[in-house]
Amino acid sequence: VGDSDATADTVFMVASISKPFLAVLALQCQRRGELKSLDASINDYIPLPVIHPSHRNVPITIRHLLTHKSGLNDDESALLKGCRWRSEGRDSPIALDRYVKWRLSHEHKHDNDVKWSKEPPGSAKYHYSNAGMTLLGHVLECATKTELHDLARERIFKPIGMVNTFYHLSEAEMVDKDGKSDDKTKVAGKGGTARPKSINFNENRATTSKNSPPPLSQGRMLAVPTTKSSVGKEGHYGVAEFPAAGLRSTASDLAKFILAMAAETGREKLGLTTADIDEMMPDGFTNGLAWWGKDAWYGDKRGGVSTYIHPFIIIYLLCISMLTS
Question: What integer best gives the mean pLDDT of the chain?
Answer without folding.
Answer: 76
